[in-house]
Each structure stands twice: as structure tokens, then as C-alpha cells.
Write the C-alpha cells for this entry.
Amino acid sequence: MDYRIQDKVAVVTGGSSGIGLATVELMLGEGARVAMCGRDRDRLARAEEGLLTAFPGAELLAVPCDVLDPDAVSTFAEVVNTRFGGVDILVNNAGQGRVSTFADTTDEAWRQELELKFFGVIHPTRAFRPLLERSEQASVVCVNSLLALQPEPHMVATSAARAGLLNLVHSMAIEFAPAGIRVNSILLGMVESGQWRRRYQAQAGEGESWQTWSANLAREKHIPLGRLGRPSEPAHAIVFLASPLAAYTTGSHIDISGGLARHV
Ligand code: NDP
């Protein structure tokens, strides 16, 4: 596949695991120069090592950074600019979901969830925007969830925050369009990743394999395609939206849910 992003500079937040890591892999395979971040230094270093083994000589920069720390994000942007001299693509991917109902979500939990979902996008977008404005083909892709349109009561805070993020993506798309920056998102159903592996470890019965546990989960959730997504599947949608192939698309989203979306 030629996404026409060769030599472009891409930043992927949360690039050390799951969907972010798959996106970095795909971008490096397409010849892009990539900067990624994550909080856990060991996980980030392992991901970097694996990527450099798979893509010897790749232009890859791995920087420990918490997207909720605005100073750390500003420093990340400076480091990327020093190394690559600009940025063409920003993928706001870092984050995780919160399982809780209205009854058991405290004020503190609400604040944490709203902070993660909003400022996890706001800080990197603000820090990288001046660099994106200098690009001829600038775009931002936000990794969002189908919960934005189809809330689940057991993920009440995540669902509400995701709806807000979908709205924010539209506002940014309109505000940034005159500067030539496109802003889009993907809406995920359930995709195999670190998050689901952690839930499997916490919830699986004695001796129950990942394959059996995840197949049962897909059946319980009535996913029409009958399985969880693979990280490479959202990665392709992210790279497409970020690429010049989607040059006339902004303020839009792609559904990657295996048919889980019930709305028309
Ligand atoms: P993973 O747990 O596999 O990966 C999450 C990545 O984000 C890791 O690299 C993690 O590294 C990083 N991260 C988390 N918080 C921060 C932070 N504050 N600052 C910087 N990096 C951070 O999960 P997924 O690949 O599944 O998740 C990717 C995105 O997709 C998330 O936003 C998630 O909410 C969203 N999503 C995923 C779904 C799924 O089914 N997988 C469904 C709906 C949405 P570290 O912990 O070291 O910081």
C-alpha cells in the first residue's frame, strides 16, 4: 500500500503499545519519520528496540512523555522539531477506557476521565499546531470510540467524554481548515490491545486461553464480524486519514467496530 507519506514526519502519542504501536509500524513501513511517546520508559524502550529491529535504519524517535503534562508535551514538541525540523501528522492516540456506571463513578473519577479524554488531545494539538501549520499536508487524527455515538452504561464517564471529543474534533476541523490542517477521528469498537489483555488477565477463568476468552467476548457483545479487531486494522484507517489520500476529508470519522454500530 502506498499512502504517500514517505519522508513525512508523524507524531504518535501512546506509540508504545496496541493501536499506537501498530500505527508507528505501518508508518515506518511506508517510509515516514516517526516520533512516539508513552509514560512507561521500559515499555517505550522495548517498543523502540522492536521497531528498530523490524525497520533497521528507521527514522524513529521515542520520548517518554505524559500527554496530561503540558510542559512535558511542549518539550516533546521541541525535541521532535530539533530532530526532524517540523511535523506533518499528529495522531492523538494515548489513553485508556474506564469501566464504571453512574452509580459508582466518583467526582474524582469523572474529573480524571474528562481530563484524560480532553487534555490528552488538547495538549499535544496545542503544542504541535505551530509545526503543523508549516506543513504543506498537515493532519491530525484522534483515536476515539464508538461510545461517542453509542454509549454503554458500564462505561458512563468514558462514553460522555468520547462524545465531547467527537464534538471537539469537528470544531478543530473548522477552525484549523484555513491553516491547511485537516482533523479527523476513528471510532473504535473493541480492538485487541494492552487494555483488553489486562482485562483478560484480570477476568479469565483458570486455564482459559486468550482466543477462547476474546471469542466469547465478541459473541456476548454481538459483534457482527464475530471477533475483536486487530491493531493493524485501525492503524490502516488512521494512516489513510492522515495521508494525502484523504486530502478532501476533514471533521469526519471512520467506524472500525466490526459492525457493532447500531445507528444508521
Ligand atoms: P494500549 O493500552 O495497548 O495502549 C495505550 C498507549 O497509550 C500505551 O502506549 C500507553 O503507554 C499510552 N498512554 C496511556 N496514557 C498515556 C498518557 N497519559 N500519556 C502518554 N501515553 C499514554 O491501548 P489501546 O491501543 O487499546 O488504546 C489506544 C487508544 O484507543 C486509547 O485512547 C483507547 O482509549 C482507545 N480505544 C481503544 C479501544 C480498544 O478496544 N482497544 C476501544 C476504544 C478506544 P503508557 O501506559 O506507558 O503511558
Summary: Residues 13-14, 16-20, 37-40, 43, 66-68, 93-97, 143, 145, 188, 190-191, 193-196 surround NDP (CB under 6 Å). The longest helix spans residues 107-133. Residues 9-191+230-256 form a domain with the Rossmann fold fold (CATH 3.40.50.720).
